[in-house]
Q: What sequence folds into this?
């Protein structure tokens, strides 16, 4: 590394030109990074932040509508319905909006007759409040399926390494090593009911569920066998 400017002046012309070019590129990159930092710190960068939500306002809806399937605390006692406790706020909100048809001519992005009826009367504010409410509840691990516990090691391998031969990426790459997900993009799946996860993977595989960005989950699920789906679902249910 050049520490003394005099060293640069004594270098041969080609080497000197090369070093000057590298310095200029470094300075340009540093300036660009500084600019990005200022932008990120500016009030304008908060434009994409979710609007304020009030979980307290969601309670009457939770207690009269959501409770039947998801319980007050978002921990479903029926395995066919998902646990919502601790799920990412942005993800819950996106799913609620996906259950709503955009208009009379445009079907919902996520088709589910029961949920379509549930969200029909919800305002955008209601959905933000509900998302905030369930995201703040403490997640509880789903009970294991005794008949499929033997599949957990296979599910763990798929989760961590994927299946190279079939072109299946490691689930942990998006959902994280412990299944926590990324709140705005990928859901929290640790402790989710095995039955619910199995159903979702199969509906992604069939194309019945098609609200995954860029068709990512459909492309992955299409390569999964029934056994692999069962193994992954069981592993996720026991992940914490």
A:
């Amino acid at each position: 590394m050049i520490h003394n400017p005099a060293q640069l002046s004594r270098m041969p012309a080609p080497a000197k030109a090369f070093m000057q070019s590298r310095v200029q590129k470094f300075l340009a990159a540093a300036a660009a990074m500084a600019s990005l930092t200022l932008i990120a710190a500016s009030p304008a960068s908060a434009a994409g932040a979710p609007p304020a939500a009030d979980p307290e306002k969601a309670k009457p809806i939770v207690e009269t509508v959501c409770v039947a399937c998801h319980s007050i605390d978002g921990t479903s006692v029926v395995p066919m319905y998902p646990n919502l406790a601790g799920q990412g706020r942005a993800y819950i909100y996106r799913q609620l909006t996906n259950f709503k048809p955009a208009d009379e001519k445009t079907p919902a992005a996520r088709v589910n007759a029961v949920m379509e009826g549930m969200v029909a009367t919800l305002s955008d504010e209601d959905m933000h409040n509900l998302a905030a409410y369930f995201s703040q509840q403490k997640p509880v691990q789903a009970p294991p399926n005794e008949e499929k516990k033997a599949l957990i090691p296979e599910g763990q391998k798929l989760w961590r390494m994927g299946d190279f031969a079939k072109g299946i990426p490691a689930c942990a790459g998006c959902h994280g090593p412990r299944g926590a997900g990324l709140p705005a993009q990928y859901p929290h799946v640790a402790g989710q009911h095995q039955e619910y996860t199995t159903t979702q993977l199969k509906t992604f595989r069939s194309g019945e569920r098609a609200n995954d960005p860029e068709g990512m989950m459909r492309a992955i699920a299409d390569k999964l066998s029934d056994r692999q789906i069962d193994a992954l679902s069981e592993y996720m249910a026991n992940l914490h």
Summary: The chain has three domains: 1-37, 55-135, 146-237. Residues 55-135 form a domain with the Cytochrome Bc1 Complex; Chain D, domain 2 fold (CATH 1.10.760.10). The longest helix spans residues 13-41. The chain has eleven helices and no strands.
